[in-house]
Amino acid sequence: MSATCGYVWKRGPEQNSPCELAPLLEDGLCLWHSAVEPKSYPPDAEEFLRKRSRAGLSLDGFELRGIRLRMASLVEANLAGVSFSGADLTLADLSRADLRRADFTNALLFGARFAGASLIRAFLIGADLSEADLFGANMREVQAFDADFRRANLSLSNLGGADLTEAVFTGARLKGTDLKGAVLTKADFREVDVSHISLAGVRLQDALR
């Protein structure tokens, strides 16, 4: 096995250089890039991610599946392309974070803060975003099939072109939300005031109301 991680950075100041993070797992990749499951993350994982982001270093390709980051503070962190599939980020603060193309499939995001964050083309399939704060978040073209947005604050967020098939918005706040071109097949908008939502190109009759 090579003494260094087999991942080559695709972005940031280390672009085209091999990753030198440790420890290495059996697939030849470091703990942070390996898709081997289950993984045991260090207790200072939150601090490691925060410091690396603040230093302007890339976290691209990080596979943080199942990581537990409850109440973590990752404000303005650059987490573009990171996989948080199945992770627990209950009450975490990711305000103004760069989460473009990040994968939150089946993640627990109850009460998490994403105010002002960029979630363009992120994956929220089956994610629990109930009571999350997504005020002003850019969520264009997210994949949010079967996502749970119950009682979430989505006011002034941009969900243009998003796939919200079977997503649940019961009791959510959507004042000024942009849903132009979104797919809302079987989405649940019960107990939602849709009078201040931008719905150009959207068929609300396809949704449950």
Radius of gyration: 18 Å
- The number of helices is 1
**Residues in β-strands, percent:** under 5%
**N-to-C SSE string, H for helix and E for strand:** H
Helix/sheet category:
little secondary structure
Uncertain ranges: none
What can you see in these coordinates?
The chain is low in regular secondary structure. Helices cover about 5% and strands about 0% of the residues. It is built from one helix and no strands. The mean pLDDT is about 90.
Q: Could you give the topology of this structure?
A:
Blueprint (H helix, E strand, L loop, with lengths): L44 H10 L155
Key features of this structure:
elongated, 5% helix, little secondary structure, 209 residues
Short summary of the structure?
With about 210 residues, the chain is largely without helices or strands. The protein is built from 1 helix and no strands.
